[in-house]
Amino acid sequence: MFSSRRVLQSQLRHLRNKPPLPCRYTPRASRNASTAAHEPLPQPSRWPRRLAYIAIFGSLGIAAGKWMDRKLAPPPLPDTEEDREKLEEIRYIYEHGLPIVKELRENPDYIEADVYGNYSEEDKLQRLSSGPLRGSRGLAFQRIFYNDKEKTAIDVAYVGQGLEGWPTVVHGGALGTVIDEHLARVAIRHLPQRTGVTANLQLRYRAPVYSGNFYTFHATLDEERSTERKAWVKGEVRDPMGRLCIEASALFVVPKTYKLQEVGDRY
Predict the structure, then answer these.
(1) Nearest residue to 215 via CA among 175, 188, 177, 171
(2) Residues annotated as region Disordered (predicted)?
(3) Residue 60 vs residue 88, higher pLDDT
(4) How many domains, the chain?
(5) For residue 31, is it within any domain?
(6) Residue 254: count of CB within 10 angstroms of its CB
């Protein structure tokens, strides 16, 4: 009995000293916690951004449509109320919106003058540029800056929709008319007879000229080649950003066989 007791005590000590077995029980997460761990986070709605895009591109589309309507619509007829309003708008832009006008006015070597200052209103109606091409649809506005020291002149002109050859692009022949007249201004101021005719005109078109905008027509006398009966003039046309659109050169002569009317300095 005594030995049995000793065996039992030995087994109890062995069990007491034996390290505990690892617990295999893993508590299960609650259903709510498991669902929250796997569900994606809510994403912000895309509708505000989509509505903003719709508003932006819709406004751009409406503006582009109105611009095309103005470009493709028939221009107003001369001497109508709509034409007079358009001419006032063009004149306002000339006075307040063209940096080159401000620059020329600040240069004491340039003299600003109205175009066709030597002609009466009745005479202007008989001229192509101031008669049939008058009004906001044609040569709506022209102002000349003369520089007699450098024998040059700059014509700040607005070309309207009625001068188009292709939609929005000014006809090359119409531009040739304006260029021919402007080069002649410099020639006639040089010729003692204050008159002359075009003997030769060469044009090199470099870039399109678009209607509904101001352009500058430049002309300079070639003093080395010119005489009392011949005037060589070179010129160019530039857009409001200064880009070269047309290059030109011309020869003007005083005929010997017949007498021309004197047109004066303000031509």
Answers:
(1) 175
(2) 17-43
(3) 88
(4) 1
(5) no
(6) 20
pLDDT of residue 69: 56
pLDDT band at 87 (very low <50, low <70, confident <90, very high): very high
How far is Cα of residue 11 from the mean position of the Cα atoms in its chain? 104
Give the range of the structural domain holding residue 117, as residue numbers without chain letter.
79-253
Whole-number Å distance between alpha carbons of 262 and 125: 18
Sign of the CA dihedral with 130 first, then 136, 138, and 144 last: positive
pLDDT at 16 over 70: no
Query: Across the chain, where does the E strand assignment appear?
Result: 111-114, 139-147, 152-159, 164-166, 169-170, 197-205, 213-221, 230-238, 244-253
Strands 164-166 and 139-147 come out as unpaired
In the chain, what is the straight-line distance between the N-terminal and C-terminal CA atoms, in Å? 149
Choice among 28-42, 46-60, 67-81, 209-223 with the minimum mean pLDDT? 28-42
The one-letter amino acid code at 121 reads E
Global pTM?
Answer: 0.73
Distances (CA, A) of 252 to 93, 200, 233: 34, 7, 8
Q: Is residue 32 a part of any domain in this protein?
A: no
Q: How far is CA 30 from CA 24, 26, 37, 40, in A?
A: 18, 12, 11, 18
Cβ neighbours of residue 48 closer than 8 Å, sequence gap 6 or more = none
Q: Which of helix, strand or coil describes residue 200?
A: strand
Answer whether residue 225 is part of any domain. yes
| Cβ-based neighbours of 159, under 8 Å, separated by 6 or more | 139, 140, 170, 174, 175, 178, 209, 211, 212, 213, 215
Q: Which two tokens stand for residue 192?
A: 């003692």
CATH of the domain at 230: 3.10.129.10
The DSSP letter of residue 266 is: -
Task: Please report, as a single letter, which amino acid is at residue 69.
Answer: D
